[in-house]
Amino acid sequence: MSEKGSFRVKSGLAEMLKGGVIMDVTNKEQAKIAEDAGAVAVMALERVPSDIRAEGGVARMADPSIIEKIVEAVTIPVMAKARIGHFVEAQILEALGVDYIDESEVLTPADESHHIDKSGFTVPFVCGATDLGEALRRVGEGAAMIRTKGEAGTGNVVEAVRHMRSINRGIMQVKGMPKEELMSAAKDLRAPYELVLEISKTGRLPVVNFSAGGLATPADAALMMQLGADGVFGGSGIFKSDDPAARAKAIVEATTNFNDPKILAGISKGLGPAMVGIEIGDIPESGLLQNRGW
Amino acid sequence: MPDAPTIGILALQGSVREHQRAIRRCGAVPALVKQAEEIALLDGLIIPGGESTTIAKLMSQAGLTETIKQAAEDGLAIFGTCAGLILMAREIAEGEQGLLGLIDIKARRNAYGSQAESFEADIAFDSLSSKKYRAIFIRAPLVEATGSSVTVLASYQGKPVLLEERQFLVSCFHPELTDDLEIHRHFLKMIEKNKGQVKQKRG
Prior knowledge:
The complex is a heterodimer.
Chain A: E1 3-4, H1 7-16, E2 21-25, H2 28-37, E3 41-44, H3 49-55, H4 64-73, E4 78-83, H5 87-96, E5 100-104, E6 125-129, H6 132-140, E7 145-148, H7 158-175, H8 182-189, H9 193-202, E8 208-210, H10 218-226, E9 232-234, H11 236-239, H12 244-256, H13 261-268
Parallel strand pairs in A: 2-3, 2-9, 3-4, 4-5, 5-6, 6-7, 7-8
Helix pairs in contact in A: 2-4, 2-12, 8-9, 10-12, 12-13
Chain B: E1 6-10, H1 16-25, E2 29-33, E3 44-47, H2 52-61, H3 64-73, E4 77-81, H4 83-88, E5 89-92, E6 96-97, E7 103-108, E8 119-125, E9 133-137, E10 142-146, E11 151-156, E12 159-165, E13 168-171, H5 182-194
Parallel strand pairs in B: 1-2, 1-3, 3-4, 4-13, 5-7
Antiparallel strand pairs in B: 5-6, 7-10, 8-9, 8-11, 11-12, 12-13
């Protein structure tokens, strides 16, 4: 018997994306540039996070016609974002034939208390997380891939680093615990016990964990890979820079050769100015995207 | 095991970790390969699942395409899964030439549609083994035509999904995602059998 949408099939695609770069694109021209640069997937969006941040207003799922054009333009997988809790946007994205849905804090949440029940979909989901408990709550709801939230649209990697370290620290702590402490750990993490038990045995998340939110340079990508990311998302940092094609290609090469400073030095040269970037402390608490979702 | 073969896994992008684990469980020595000069040290090479367009670009940038082609000509055994099959195929549908062109098949990239059409299913071995095998197909390629010297080892819905020719093995599905080591073991047997054919120990 053949089975579509099993968890192995959903998480399997994320496994295939490992070591790669997923790039935010807003039209088919950008999608082609991303594919030509070696992106493993593109994220179809109406506005990149830095524009959402600058322009304000409610950010929603992209217009299906934008997504369709991008799907037609490339052979690599296409992802698209739905608002947190907006399961109808997710149904529409599934009907459009996207390969992955990002239930994303970059868009304005549609539900303050509940995320989408992702296990009911055939198409897989990726969700953001700031720590281990949040990552496991999303996996518990059916997410087949996790990414750090970072602070999208800032060109500042500091939050992505904080979240990656936090997830890794949580895993190390669980791994070192005797079994009788795991239930209490699950309570403190506000995470499903079975997943905490699994991590104590395997020492790693049950799904792939990419890094996202504020990566702007090849060095940023390599930093996140050395910190243990399975791959990276490149958002505003690519198409808000002076030379997107060159920067995209350099970030792809840096993600593969993350452990080779000589290669990193070579590919970091002459890329022109990166996006300007924002100091996190200059963003009011209410403007932090990472606080959306729980 | 002093004679355990060293199996390189092309570690540019994709399901590297899963192949590494499978090779280790088979008792062979996995080696992650990113640079052309590392190819000479190998007894066999695995090109993993991943995005074929991405892996192809990174291979060419690292000078690996020509090195692997030459090593294959000199007898290096190579196993490609999914993206690896695309890279090893002689032809990709619509007349595009395969990057390495090692195995005489015509393949169609991502033939089943979007990720929602990805699936797992029991496949039938034509030879190799009589047991049931659960295979995971993710945005899988379809083999549309095969040359006369290609052997089909397994099929699904009448289409070949595991094939070999000389010292080359390819699969449309991902044996690295399941715990069954049958196919990795078969590749190691192919290497053993192929030993006499290798021009000389490279490097």
